[in-house]
Amino acid sequence: PAIVTNIGEKDAEVYLGKGQTARIGWDGLSWARPYEDESHRGAKPKTAADILKKGDLIRIQEQQDKEGNSYWRLAQIPAVSGALVSLDPTNGAINALVGGYDFYSSKFNRAIQAKRQPGSGFKPVIYSAALEAGYTAASIINDAPVIMEANGDDDTWRPENYSGKFYGPTRLRWALTKSRNLVSIRLLRAMGISHALEHARRFGFDPDSLPHSLSLALGSGEVTPLQMARAYAVLANGGFLIEPWFIQRIERNGEVLFEADPLVVGCNQDTEEETRQPGEAVSCRAAPRTLSEENRYIMYSMMQDVINRGTGVRARVLKRNDLAGKTGTTNEQRDAWFTGYNQHIVTTVWTGFDDNSKLGKGEVGGRVALPAWIAFMKVALEDIPDEPPEMPSTLVTVRIDKNTGLQVSGNTADTMFEIFRPGNEPPVSEEEETTSRDPATTDGQESPGSSVRPDDLF
């Protein structure tokens, strides 16, 4: 806290207490535009007098510029709340947990108590369920308007993409990269809500607590940041469901009163049972596999694209090749999320108001939550090697046309390599039907999700 003692044209003098004073330059003042509502700010200030007056009790913060020089900046206590959870996906150990801005201002722990809608952050669960149902990353779904009755009355539900635009037939990989809402809804409708709900159990979610409607595709259920971190850990650790834990051990006078017994990825209980000595306890409990290695790897690859060329592109500032993640934003920007990971760490960040007020126009996950995630991960990743997962030998890569999702042989700007389960590759495009097919990668039969379905297009 500080008291304004003098105001210049572009600066202000403040008293900090105990005989200390400070000067706030224009670089530390010019950001302070008057608040009008959640989507509008007043005119930019021209002088310090537009912002402060003598005798004001304010808050200031010491910061550093790009050259490392310290300066004072006008600050404020945020009205918006937030939470962060970071854990080890191999055993569930909590690395960091932040439940709010200040414990003395609010003792409500949003990291474990706040149930909020995850928005598009739930889409990886939907897309993973689609892969289990026979779809592929190259399957085509039409990004077109969807109109449905709501609640069985005359009301209609008209979901839209965030941009308000529609993009037509779209590959699943690209739809997840760009977080296309209409593709997710059509995908869920095609594969069935019950299938997706049961698949969500593999990520630690209780199907009974999730909506049994198509709004599930847009993350309309309520989850905590801790639940989101646990769910994404399945994608980070190879397909195993872990249990987050907080306390490693409690001792009193040298006596161990409590010691954590976590589920551990890679713990082979059968081997330990055979090799342990009589009376020796098994040292770990094996985390159950809930997702196939193939499903997990394809999802990991798709979510890397979210960072490389999608809604999470700001994370590229970390200059790593092993990061994957997903943004999340709810209706009217009331919640903003980003959850990202590699094989060694999962971190989720949520931002929103406790009273569910709007954050404001443009306040989406990639703009609000992602910067906090980047700031944390920049430090957390310092001693973690940049190691993308290896593709399982049970998967194959096939060159496809980016527009149709069909197999092609020519290397042009409109082609790319995509990952498939053997036998689930798309058919060859009509232009190349006369070209011989490689018998090692396809048997000439179409597999589920390998071609465009009529209900996907219309």
What would your notes on this structure say?
The protein has three domains: 2-75, OB fold (Dihydrolipoamide Acetyltransferase, E2P) (Beta Barrel); 81-241 and 290-380, DD-peptidase/beta-lactamase superfamily (Beta-lactamase), CATH 3.40.710.10; 249-286, no CATH class. Strand 19 (335-341) and strand 20 (346-352) form a beta hairpin. A five-stranded antiparallel beta sheet has the order 3-2-1-6-7, with no helix packed on it. Strands 9-8-20-19-18 form a five-stranded antiparallel beta sheet, sandwiched between helices. A two-stranded antiparallel ribbon has the order 4-5. It has 458 residues and is α+β, with helices and mostly antiparallel strands. The longest helix is centred in the middle third of the chain and has 17 residues, at 293-309. Helix 2 (123-132) crosses helix 5. The model is unreliable at 271-276 and 434-458 (pLDDT under 50). It contains ten helices and 22 strands. It is globular and about 75 Å long. The termini are far apart. The protein has helices at 110-113, 123-132, 172-177, 181-191, 193-200, 225-236, 269-275, 293-309, 365-380, 454-457, and strands at residues 2-7, 12-17, 20-24, 35-37, 40-41, 57-64, 70-75, 81-87, 94-98, 140-143, 148-149, 156-157, 168-171, 249-252, 255-259, 263-264, 285-286, 324-329, 335-341, 346-352, 396-401, 415-420.
Number of strands: 22
CATH superfamily caption of the largest domain: DD-peptidase/beta-lactamase superfamily
Overall, the morphology is: globular
CATH class group of the largest domain: Alpha Beta
Distance between the termini: 60 Å
Keywords: Cell inner membrane, Cell membrane, Cell shape, Cell wall biogenesis/degradation, Glycosyltransferase, Membrane, Peptidoglycan synthesis, Transferase, Transmembrane, Transmembrane helix
Biased composition (Polar residues): 437-450
Protein name: Peptidase
GO molecular function: penicillin binding; peptidoglycan glycosyltransferase activity
